[in-house]
Sequence to fold (251 residues):
Amino acid sequence: MKKTIFITCVTRMDEIFSCVAGIDEHNRFVRPIIDYPDERPGIKREFLFSPSGEELVRPLTYVEFEFIEHRPEKPYHTEDWIIDGDVAPRVVSRSNDDASRRILERSVSSSLSEAISKRDRSLVTIKTPFAPKVKIKIDVEGRLSCRFVMKDSAGDWITNARTATAPPRITDAYWLALCKHLYNNGMPEAEIEEHLRSILKEAKNMYIVIGLTREWHKRYWRQVSGVLTVPYWLGGKTLAEFGYDWTDNVQ
Fold:
């Protein structure tokens, strides 16, 4: 079954995998997953690109996949759909700003804690009352991590777990690519933080997609899976232009 979704998230995960999510025609989040033989399910990064290196799956784009079956996983991960990994994703169209804004506005929840209280969803769009503060850290191996300090519209601070106090990590591959590009070009961490926050401050319409992980260390961790603005902060740039190496710290 061919199905087109509006892409909201392309994330950096460990090893060779990425996570993709989007919104379908019923305003429901969908997470395409390939059931690889003898390997963990997910989406390998190579699936996101054509043989020539063109990005086939990128935010604010309508992309068609060959869906096989709905395979919800509880708690939380009810959005999972198995897709055919032998059928390449097809770019249907780039969304215009008006359409992107309408789709994202319909998906917004004012309260993250309320949205996930029934444990029947792992993807939630929120809006923040102020531009998130950006926190960058580079570890001894040169791997970058980025976090957002922010509240949702209900006024609650967003943390990386229900009983934790640390802000959530960014796993949005495009946002991390920009962070790493600035760092590799010699910009100090404090300047990177200020530059990135200025992008969010200047955005007319900003949407943050929070994603919950699978259970890890007895918790379902909250991450920023999508950093979206309309118009899109990335413009027409690609991951290749940033020279992104997919090695950043997302744990």
